[in-house]
Amino acid sequence: MQSAIRFRGKLLDDAEESLVHSTANAQSVAAKAKQQHKQASWNFCKVLLMLLVVAVVFSFMIVWIKLTSMVGLKGQR
Question: Which DSSP symbol is given to 73?
Fold first, then answer.
């Protein structure tokens, strides 16, 4: 009877140790995932900002070409 109680106690201790280890591992993975998500969001914002800048420059170039052609400025020949 005593050996059965000790065996069950050892099983409970092992299960608790495994649970603590698993919980710590899950928290570590969650922290890494949060950091990666934050970095990915920042990269996405930078890409959108670059696309906006390119679109604005492209639009400005089209307007500049139209204005200079309306005024009559031509390239040197």
Answer: -
